[in-house]
């Protein structure tokens, strides 16, 4: 439903504009999570290249995250190493369920490894127009 612009089985659940708003970086001055930590702001994960929307982390710069992904990918992780992400550029949804409570991204980077495996299998781009010119959204960019 989220990747389909708010429609599910032909029925409108949310407007496309609402989905855009939810998956836009809402951190002040389009900062990422690492910059918010430097300013003393709260952040579960101080990740470079990762902003935050309304309910999702949002990839602003894949190179800074040091993980293969796309600009505009949005995700949410759970306590037991679970994660889901949507990649609008690749028209891709990944849902990873696990009950692995020990989580140390330096010792066993499960999410990064999963991303590498998934993107290694992507061999074409179903949304070519998005890849070349995908904007990084921020409602703070006008300030």
What does this structure look like?
It contains five helices and seven strands, in the order E-E-H-H-E-E-H-E-E-E-H-H. Strands 3-4-5-6-7 form a five-stranded antiparallel sheet. Strands 1-2 form a two-stranded antiparallel sheet. It is an alpha+beta fold. The N and C termini lie far apart (31 Å). It is globular, with a radius of gyration of 15 Å. It has helices at residues 16-22, 33-38, 62-65, 110-120, 128-133, and strands spanning 7-8, 11-12, 50-52, 57-59, 74-77, 83-87, 92-96. A hairpin with a 2-residue loop joins strand 1 (7-8) and strand 2 (11-12). 24% of the residues lie in helices and 17% in strands. Mean pLDDT is 83; it is low at 133-143. The longest helix has 11 residues, at 110-120.
């Amino acid at each position: 439903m989220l990747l389909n612009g708010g429609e599910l089985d032909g029925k409108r659940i949310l407007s496309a504009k609402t989905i855009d708003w939810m998956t836009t970086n809402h951190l002040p001055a389009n900062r990422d999570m690492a910059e918010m930590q430097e300013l003393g702001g709260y952040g579960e994960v101080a990740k470079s290249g990762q902003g935050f929307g309304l309910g999702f982390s949002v990839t602003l710069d894949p190179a800074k995250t040091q993980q293969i992904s796309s600009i505009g990918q949005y995700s949410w992780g759970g306590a037991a190493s679970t994660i889901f992400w949507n990649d609008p550029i690749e028209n891709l949804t990944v849902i990873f369920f696990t009950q692995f409570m020990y989580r140390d991204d330096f010792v066993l980077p499960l999410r990064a490894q999963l991303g590498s495996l998934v993107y290694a299998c992507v061999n074409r781009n179903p949304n070519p127009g998005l890849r070349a010119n995908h904007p990084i959204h921020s409602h703070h960019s006008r300030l």
